[in-house]
Amino acid sequence: MIVLRAEQQGDDVVLVPNDEALVRLAPQPGDVFVVSEAEGDQLVISKQPSLDERFERGRAFLDRYRSTFEDLAK
Question: What pTM did the predictor assign?
Fold first, then answer.
């Protein structure tokens, strides 16, 4: 089970993950995690792709559909 414990660090409240959470989330310095609501009182946490990963996915999308976009531009 993933557990996040809230702790006070200076003026901030931080969430400290347990070992299982560290393995499953594989956080790296600078990673951004998004928490969204699911059904009822459930929350979903996911890692936001880095800027480089998002650009690479965008490039792959454009490469895959390049001829379609060129035809539409005519």
Answer: 0.56
* Angstrom distance (rounded) from CA 27 to CA 47: 8
Q: Render the burial of 48-67: b for 16+ CB within 10 Å, e for the rest.
A: eeeeeeeeeeeeeeeeeeee
List CB contacts of 19: < 8 A, sequence separation 6 or more. Answer: none
pLDDT, one tens digit per residue, over 2-58 is 899 999 999 999 999 999 999 998 888 888 899 999 888 898 988 888 788 888 888
Q: How many CB atoms lie within 10 A of CB 69?
A: 9
Q: State the sign of the Cα–Cα–Cα–Cα dihedral 52, 58, 60, 63.
A: negative
